[in-house]
Amino acid sequence: MGDGDFGRVFPNAGPVRRNCEHWGRFGSYAPRSRATVVAVMTSIANIVILTGAGISAESGIATFRGPGGLWEGHRVEDVCTPEALAADPALVHRFYDLRRAALSKVSPNAAHEALARLDREWPGALLIVTQNVDDLHERAGASRLLHMHGALKQALCAVCGERFEWYDALPPGTPCPACAAPALRPDIVFFGEIPYQMERIEAALAEADLFVSIGTSGAVYPAAGFVRMASAYGAETLELNLDRSDGSGWFDESRLGPAGQLVPQWVEQMLSRRPAR
Ligand code: NAD
Ligand code: ZN
């Protein structure tokens, strides 16, 4: 998909941008404020939800660009690139060891719980695509879930490509249980690496009636481009974020506030309008 597909700019306020045929899917539509656009849809079946670090912030996990633009005190380039892993594997492995160990001290919050409820109760297709490497979605009970940037509790063999569940420290040189190469690394998608399951994500976006982005800055690609892809395929788009993000202008509607409040409210709204099975 070239840039031309994304060439239209949909400011985050003002009149609708869709053709009549599309709006016909949602019953009678008269122009109304964007604040109510997503709320009035009654025929949504397929939902894709993208989550980012902001959904885990209220659980006590730092977002990517905290104070000073650092991630847990480190420059992103020092802990989140293949070059950093090659230059200082001890530092990079230790960084993710600490993040993995810290998971035992945090719990899912109301936003994770609400998405898990939606996953259980939504009768249509649903996919939660998380950029997060924590395990809070699955601990809340979500199962229609995909970790596009990897997971702290997994190790990846750089030689044979096998993945393993991993709960403890992972020192550089740890042998792979499958091929014995001393090449296990944290299963984290670094900058410059291709996120996981992109084909599955694009297929879900192509079928989506609604795309919802929660707690993500819209600065990390390709995830930041999903809103435009979903729009181009004909989905409605909703952002739930603490403050305006880099991508806010691309959404039909943005609701600003903490995920712990906004997500349960939105889930309640969706389930009260759910389509019949
Ligand atoms: P980001 O840190 O770049 O942006 C976080 C966004 O969340 C910001 O727009 C911020 O305004 C918003 N936010 C902060 N607190 C919020 C709250 N309580 N409710 C709602 N929104 C809130 O995160 P990103 O866009 O996900 O990109 C960061 C990258 O870093 C991702 O690729 C991710 O893999 C990685 N990361 C993951 C974790 C995690 O697993 N929990 C934590 C930090 C970084
Ligand atoms: Zn191996």
Structural category is alpha/beta
The backbone outline, from C-alpha atoms, is globular
Bound ligands, each once: nicotinamide-adenine-dinucleotide, zinc ion
Query: How is the quaternary structure best described?
Result: single chain
Question: Based on the structure given, which CATH architecture of the largest domain is correct?
Answer: 3-Layer(aba) Sandwich
Query: CATH homologous superfamily of the largest domain, by name?
Result: TPP-binding domain
N-to-C span: 34 Å
Poorly predicted regions: 1-36
Major β-sheet profile: 6 strands, parallel
What is the strand arrangement across the widest sheet?
3-2-1-7-8-9
| Residues in helices, as a percent range | 25-40%
Gyration radius over CA: 20 Å
Q: At the first level of CATH, what is the class of the largest domain? A: Alpha Beta
Beta-strand segment tally? 9
**Number of spatially distinct domains:** 2
At CATH level 3, the topology of the largest domain is Rossmann fold
Beta-strand share of residues: 15-25%
